[in-house]
Amino acid sequence: MTRWSTEPAYRRIAAEWAEAIDNGAVADGQQLPTRQKLMQEHGVSLQVVRDALNLLHHEGYLRAESAKGTFVHRPPRLVLPMYTFEDEDRLVDAFTAVIERQGHRPKQDIEVHVLRPPPGIARSLRLGDDELALVRRRIRYVDGVPYAIADSYYPEKLVAGTAVAKPEDVPTGLRHVLVELGYQMVHHDDSITARRPHKRELQQLSLAPGLPVIAHNRTSYYTAGRESPIRVLASVLPADRWELTYEVES
């Protein structure tokens, strides 16, 4: 007996429809069959169909339109090429370039704060107990829809009073500002996890109730070793809106 055969019927049905939607066999905007037809197709009761549809709604796969029916609802999934974000030869903001290249309109809201960072960020930046970080908090939009949160933390003592500390867009990208300050980033460590969204993320990213997020943290260093961190970029990406890509040299 396999684990699949012991799964409740509503979970198996939801998994089958999720796979069909994810691989493009069922397109965004396509209407689902009626509940009666789903009952016949899967040989289950009305309650099982309801439970399967509720699960898909909860995870952000479907939308219901009054008196019309149930439709597939998946936002455009964009590619985020992580290996190009620190390309210092390109005099353009990396996020703007990535989104425009895929035919969409980017925008971001920016706030700047000086604070005592979370313990994990403080460790990554090698900050002492009494040292502060400067954080640029950004909500990144695609075609007016919030698509990501991106918080960049810097040792406050290294960037205070510079363009990094201003809550403004930097058209060439902040990596060029850091180079001018003498902090050319030469190495990056990435960490990627999937988790339940936190309060701020639920408030700012318009997430379906059961949708997980991808938490991507990049620690950047301005010497060849790991003793001189200059930035931690902490991004939160809704799992249904992004594909992260990398190039790996052998």
CATH architecture group name of the largest domain: 3-Layer(aba) Sandwich
Average pLDDT score: 92
**Strand neighbour order, sheet with most strands:** 4-5-6-9-8-7
Form type: elongated
Largest sheet, in brief, is: 6 strands, antiparallel
Tell me the helix content.
25-40%
Straight-line N-to-C gap = 42 Å
Briefly note the structural class of the backbone. Answer: alpha+beta
Order of helices and strands: HHHHEEEHEHEEHHEHEEE
- Number of discrete domains: 2
At the fold tier of CATH, the topology name of the largest domain is Chorismate lyase
CATH superfamily of the largest domain: Chorismate lyase-like
Estimate what percentage of residues fall within beta strands.
Answer: 25-35%
Explain this structure to me?
The mean pLDDT is 92. By secondary structure, this protein is of the alpha+beta class. The two termini are 42 Å apart. Helix 2 (9-22) packs across helix 4 (46-58) and helix 3 (35-42) crosses helix 4 (46-58). It has a six-stranded antiparallel beta sheet. A two-stranded antiparallel sheet has the order 1-2. A two-stranded parallel ribbon has the order 3-10. It folds into two domains: 3-72, Winged helix-like DNA-binding domain superfamily/Winged helix DNA-binding domain (Arc Repressor Mutant, subunit A); 78-245, Chorismate lyase (3-Layer(aba) Sandwich). The chain has nine helices and ten strands. It has helices at 3-6, 9-22, 35-42, 46-58, 94-101, 119-124, 156-159, 174-180, 199-205; strands at residues 62-65, 69-72, 78-81, 106-115, 133-142, 145-155, 187-195, 213-221, 229-238, 242-245.
